[in-house]
Automatic annotation (TrEMBL):
<keyword id="KW-1133">Transmembrane helix</keyword>
<feature type="transmembrane region" description="Helical">
    <location>
        <begin position="545"/>
        <end position="564"/>
    </location>
</feature>
<feature type="transmembrane region" description="Helical">
    <location>
        <begin position="624"/>
        <end position="644"/>
    </location>
</feature>
<feature type="transmembrane region" description="Helical">
    <location>
        <begin position="696"/>
        <end position="716"/>
    </location>
</feature>
<dbReference type="InterPro" id="IPR029044">
    <property type="entry name" value="Nucleotide-diphossugar_trans"/>
</dbReference>
<feature type="transmembrane region" description="Helical">
    <location>
        <begin position="656"/>
        <end position="675"/>
    </location>
</feature>
<feature type="transmembrane region" description="Helical">
    <location>
        <begin position="452"/>
        <end position="472"/>
    </location>
</feature>
<feature type="transmembrane region" description="Helical">
    <location>
        <begin position="597"/>
        <end position="617"/>
    </location>
</feature>
<dbReference type="InterPro" id="IPR050834">
    <property type="entry name" value="Glycosyltransf_2"/>
</dbReference>
<feature type="transmembrane region" description="Helical">
    <location>
        <begin position="859"/>
        <end position="878"/>
    </location>
</feature>
<dbReference type="GO" id="GO:0016740">
    <property type="term" value="F:transferase activity"/>
</dbReference>
<keyword id="KW-0812">Transmembrane</keyword>
<protein>
    <submittedName>
        <fullName>GT2 family glycosyltransferase</fullName>
    </submittedName>
</protein>
<dbReference type="Pfam" id="PF13641">
    <property type="entry name" value="Glyco_tranf_2_3"/>
</dbReference>
<feature type="transmembrane region" description="Helical">
    <location>
        <begin position="343"/>
        <end position="364"/>
    </location>
</feature>
<feature type="transmembrane region" description="Helical">
    <location>
        <begin position="511"/>
        <end position="533"/>
    </location>
</feature>
<keyword id="KW-0472">Membrane</keyword>
């Protein structure tokens, strides 16, 4: 301060400090560094201290220079501020990070603005080296540290707001100055080193025992007060704080999460302070437009999108090299290989997305998207939620995959049909992207091509195994969950025993999270996944008990209500979503769906040959054990679908895609050993290189065949379709009468029947009996049998009316059967259409509330599952890094001061 030029009159205010600040100020006063020293109160804010001093100043004083106790101005800082202040009212200096020996000065802040959430937004990159590259310009406001304010402006605005005693007071002052028609500019030439002792917790302040909480509160209060409707804005900010709190909780920062919630609560309970600040803002406002000084609405979204893209890029290319090496700077040679490697991944992903559009060309159009294993999606989000919460007969909860579909519909802007379209289109690309998380752990750097090849083979396994062809939601989910679970398992196996106890649970929690999603698709997969969990918990003879408990009990807790209900229907453990619907697409001889047997056989042979080649390269015992596990899963996938399983009065077959996908992933996980140069056997004939090339060729041939099948025919069974019922029948079903239609297929052996209504079929309708009541189900079955056999009597129409059935639909019957049904009393004229015949039940048939057959709504199983998944996500998330304050000497014990 003694080196300042020009030298100002410095008046210090001690707001009730409890350390040695008072003696330091007394010494500075004796030495002439401070012109005057005044005493304040600990509960006074910074603005209160300035107002107390300003009121007693001589009228000749025209400028106020506000300084904190943790600043170090450059000698020319004040001169530059005064020079910039000509024609301005408030001048904001450039705040630099604390000075460090042998380090360049780094920029900390040059003015501030504020986001709609109350977050502080800076217009400079914090940490950039100060090269005097910044120019002066308008700014919304800034920190009061080093702020130069004309005395006239201070008086006109009434100083800083008492409602903002510590943080955001300078920002609010500048904001009100703009709205009053005053000028607020930055001065990059004026450098001031600042420690930010208040926000980083280095200074204990009575007004801010928890700086983060106080900063969030005052930021939200500032935004609310400057809005047209402070109360509504406060409610919006409180909801935003709840979302931020969940984010901090996922980052295992419960303290910061509590700070967000406490700040939101205090904002709502101190509305009088917000109202007082709003009146102060309204008093000084001249309707000046400050929109251009606020961050655009999409800026924070773009920032989050950039962060997400960076995270995805780190997953895809985790070992990127530095942009420029010293060798490249000192050589004339240009290495194009690195450039090609860096372009390989984005180009490949772009081509895969384009291929997905080509393969899904039949998915676009009008009508409902359906498939052999894909039921029509509900029309609205409320319908999807209803399908999730409705409980089938004899169970505590509905299938959890319905919850994933309902929540996923938010991605489709609340339209379940749009979400289904996205899921079907992106099933292969997303599975490829999930596979990269596994391959980058199994392959060393500079093996981008090998990683892409393995990812391509894994993603294209979905159409080869009939997943995309049948539209199976479970298969698409397994394409993502299985490789991510394998990646988490590898992290668990390679854990560092010196990590903290909480960090050791991250990998098991991730494994439990993805295992839960895999079990949603195929419950029986929990058994092999638990076997892998036991193997992952064992390391060097020691058992990681906490991790094993999380990996085993996490899925059990999340799926407990549903799994308990499956005790009565154990066959459901071996089937995927909507088993009664998927059973029609599963054949004992071809459990891999619509893929030709010869194509499946060739693909399987190439895959197994590549894996066996890799075992020749590295025949360690644990790799042989993995090969045995893959063989077991492969055999189960081929054998189990041959068994006819009773379920809900019908016959289903076990799902094969889950076991085949698990075996495929394990086999592909063996292949990197043959694609790693360091693992090869260097000899005269170099057989290792031959093996490596052979493995790559086999996988490339497999990928080529898979790609051709995907682009050519794999998407054919999934298509857009309109209902086969006449428009008049659909209109009655959609009306207030809400009748049902009895559908009978007499051409199948035995004859099959089902019900159609405005809410049937839909997601989950094949998870249980369409008619839960046994007596009602027996009546409906009797009506269907009578129609299929041609023995319908006079009571056919009466029975239909009693069940709320307004129309009868028959397919596969000959002319004699159609005539027999048409002669039944109580039925209207027959209407033939596209090989089917429809009759109307005479009379005003209405489905009254007592004929509603849907199960009861239960919300607690869904809540329990979501809570369990949130707990696993919190354990799995990386720990949020604590904010580091600038380096400085340790504070003296007991220090407390208010700037």
């Amino acid at each position: 301060m003694a080196r300042l030029d020009p030298r100002p009159a410095i008046i210090a205010v001690d707001n009730g400090s409890t350390d040695a600040s008072a003696s330091l100020l007394a010494k500075a006063l004796d030495e002439g560094l401070v012109s005057e020293c005044r005493q304040g109160r600990a509960q006074d804010g910074f603005g209160d201290a300035v107002r107390a001093v300003e009121s007693g100043l001589d009228e000749s004083v025209t400028w106020l220079w506000l300084l904190h106790d943790d600043v170090e101005p450059r000698p020319d800082a004040l001169a530059e501020l005064l020079r910039q202040g000509e024609g301005c009212d408030i001048v904001v200096p450039k705040l630099l990070e604390p000075r460090r020996r042998n380090h360049a000065n780094r920029i900390g802040e040059l003015g501030q603005t504020i986001a709609g959430s109350g977050a502080r937004v800076l217009d400079v990159e914090t940490g950039d080296v100060d090269q005097h590259q910044l120019a002066s310009g308008e700014v919304l406001g800034g920190s009061t540290a080093g702020l130069l304010v004309s005395r006239d402006a201070w008086r006109e605005l009434g100083g800083t707001s008492p409602e903002l005693p510590l943080f955001r007071d300078g920002l609010d002052l500048g904001w009100r100055a703009h709205e009053a028609g005053l000028r607020v500019v930055t001065c990059p030439a004026a450098g001031i080193h600042h420690r930010w002792a208040g926000r980083t917790g280095q200074r204990e302040a009575a007004l801010a025992p928890r700086p983060d909480r106080t900063d969030r509160l005052l930021g939200m209060r500032t935004v609310a007060a400057h809005s047209q409707h402070p109360t509504l804005t406060s409610l919006r900010l409180a909801l935003t704080a709840v979302v931020f709190a969940l984010g901090h909780l996922l980052g295992k920062a419960p303290g910061r999460s509590l700070d967000e919630l406490a700040a939101a609560w205090e904002l709502l309970t101190t509305r009088s302070l917000t109202a007082a600040l709003h009146r102060r803002v309204a008093y000084t406002t001249s309707r000046a437009d400050t929109t251009h000084l606020r961050p655009p609405r999409g800026r924070m979204l773009r920032l989050r999108a950039d962060q997400f893209a960076s995270w995805v890029s780190d997953r895809v290319l985790p070992e990127r090299e530095a942009d420029t090496s010293i060798d490249e700077l000192t050589t004339d040679r240009v290495d194009g290989r690195r450039a090609r490697r860096s372009l390989l991944v984005p180009v490949a992903m772009t081509l895969v997305l384009l291929a997905a559009l080509v393969a899904g060309r039949r998915l676009f159009g009008f009508g409902t998207l359906t498939g052999p294993a894909l039921a029509p999606a509900p029309a609205t989000l409320s319908g999807a939620l209803d399908a999730w919460l409705r409980t089938p007969d004899g169970q505590l909860a509905n299938a959890p995959w319905l919850g994933l579909g309902a929540l996923g519909s938010l991605v489709g802007l609340g339209r379940p049909g749009w979400f289904v379209l996205l899921a079907q289109l992106l099933a292969v690309p997303v599975a490829m992207l999930a596979g990269t998380a596994l391959w980058h752990r199994l392959l060393p750097p500079r093996t981008t091509a090998a990683r892409l090849l393995l990812s391509l083979v894994w993603g294209l396994s979905l159409p080869l195994l009939g997943v995309t062809g049948s539209g199976s939601p479970g298969g698409a989910l397994l394409g993502v969950a299985l490789p991510l679970a394998a990646a988490a398992w590898l992290d668990w196996v390679r854990r560092d025993e010196d990590d903290a106890a909480v960090e050791k649970l991250r990998a098991p929690a991730r494994y439990a999270l993805w295992s839960t999603l895999a079990a949603v698709a195929l419950p029986a997969l929990l058994l092999p996944l638990w076997g892998f969990a036991l193997a992952g918990a064992m390391r060097r003879g020691s058992l990681h008990v906490p991790g094993l408990a999380v990996a085993v009990f996490g899925p059990l807790l999340a799926l407990a209500p549903w799994l308990v209900g499956l005790v009565r229907t154990p066959s459901r453990l071996l089937t995927g979503p909507d088993p009664l619907l998927a059973a029609r697409a599963v054949h004992a001889s071809t459990p891999w769906g619509n893929t030709p047997w010869w194509l499946f056989s060739v693909g399987a042979a190439l895959l197994w040959l590549a894996a066996c080649w890799a075992l020749v390269v590295d025949p360690r015992t644990r790799r042989l054990a993995l090969a045995g596990a893959a063989l077991t899963a492969w055999v189960l996938g081929l054998v189990l679908p041959r068994l006819a399983l009773p379920l809900h009065g019908g016959t289903v077959r076990a799902d094969a895609s889950g076991w085949l996908l698990l075996a495929t992933l394990v086999l592909l996980a063996l292949c990197p050993a043959a694609l790693t140069p360091s693992a090869l056997n260097p000899s005269a004939l170099n057989p290792g290189r031959l093996l490596r090339r052979a493995t790559g060729i086999l996988l490339a041939l497999l990928a080529a065949g898979q790609l051709g099948w995907w682009l050519g025919a794999a998407g054919a069974p999934v298509h857009r379709t309109r209902t086969e019922l006449p428009a008049s029948v659909v209109a009655v079903e959609q009306s207030n009468r809400a009748t049902r239609t009895l559908l009978v297929d007499a051409g199948s052996i035995p004859a099959r029947w089902s019900l159609h209504a405005r809410d049937l079929p839909r997601w989950g309708s094949a998870e249980g009996d369409q008619v839960p009541d046994p007596a009602l189900r027996q009546q409906a079955q009797a009506l269907a049998a009578a129609m299929a056999s041609g023995t319908a009597g006079e009571d056919l129409a009466d029975g239909a009316r009693a069940l709320g059935i307004g129309h009868l639909w028959l397919r596969g019957g000959d002319d004699g059967l159609v005539s027999a049904v048409s002669d039944t009393p109580g039925l209207g004229p027959a209407e033939a259409r596209e090989g089917a015949t429809t009759w109307t039940v005479t009379g005003l048939v209405t489905r009254t509330p007592d004929r509603e057959w849907a199960g009861p709504r239960r919300g607690w199983p869904a809540g329990l599952g979501i809570l369990a998944l949130l707990v696993l996500a919190v354990l799995a998330a990386p720990t949020t890094a604590a904010a580091e304050g600038p380096r400085r000497a340790a504070a003296q014990p007991g220090r407390r001061s208010n700037r």
